[in-house]
Amino acid sequence: MGLFSKKKRNIRRTREDYIFDTLNTIFMILLCVVMLYPFLNTLAISLNDASDSIRGGIYLWPREFSFKSYEHVFGQTAIYQATLISVLRTVVGTLLSLLFTAMVAYAISRKEFVFRRSFTIIFVLTMYFNGGLIPTFLLMRDLHLIGSFWVYILPGLISAFNLIVMRSFIDGLPESLFESARIDGGGDFTIFFRIVLPLSLPVLATVALFVAVFQWNQWFDVFLYNSSIQSLSTLQYELMKILQTSSMSMGGGSAASGFADSQSGQSERVTPTSIRATMTIVASVPIIMVYPFLQKYFVKGLTLGGVKE
């Protein structure tokens, strides 16, 4: 009798698990469709003929394949130099931001640092108040950063939000590790580079993704400080100018909004909608390629402080 009841319970549990797995699978498929649809729709519009896209009705697949929008975007000679500057500012800005943010986070996480609370409050206040656009511009001018590459790096070198995230992670590291290192004669730099940084890979990856996305998407600082210097223009700023030119051409009814196909000799229009979709794909692909390598650390880093032992 006991064996029969046990087998019956196993059958009932298996059915419940089967129902749950089925419903869970359906829900996750629907969730994936909802989350991926905007990107797939944008990709379909970018690969569709611009004139045909005006009619609408494009969802997940292009109705008339065309690479004219991509040819128009990549046909701009300035975009290649701008891409190099964007990659350079993203790499340099991310590495320097990680280093200096981690160093400051380690300093204010030490209990022996007398002013740790005061400095933390000062950093938090910067998240709510700033000097404004004009004072910031005047400050960049007085620091002689306008017209230089470092105006992209130095102003955002340390983010208060990223600093608090890193400090919270370092606070959670076992204090015995630091005590053991000090007994062995290790100083703060030794502890930081040999203990803190290797153990902080999850939070470093999380902050690195935040900073990299911010640096890659920035164009307003180029507009403010280096708009007249073509050699320091970034990809996002060049894409913005392409979209602006296309919108002005369409608004004025100018033939400049179309260009001739060298093979057929026919003029194919490039609309602001198709350019905007193409720009979105071009700008997001590098981040999409980097994210899978950081996903494991990124998810772990986002749960910082979620569980207290």
TrEMBL record:
Transmembrane segments: 21-40, 78-107, 119-138, 150-170, 191-216, 275-294
UniProt xrefs under InterPro entries: MetI-like (IPR000515), MetI-like_sf (IPR035906)
The ABC transmembrane type-1 domain, residue ranges: 83-294
Matches recorded under CDD domains: TM_PBP2 (cd06261)
Keywords linked to the UniProt accession: Cell membrane, Membrane, Transmembrane, Transmembrane helix, Transport
Pfam family for this entry, one: BPD_transp_1
One Gene Ontology term from the biological process aspect of the record: transmembrane transport
Cellular compartments annotated: Cell membrane
A GO CC term assigned to this protein in UniProt: plasma membrane
Protein name as it appears in the record: ABC transporter
Species of provenance: Halalkalibacter hemicellulosilyticusJCM 9152
Source taxonomy: Bacteria, Bacillati, Bacillota, Bacilli, Bacillales
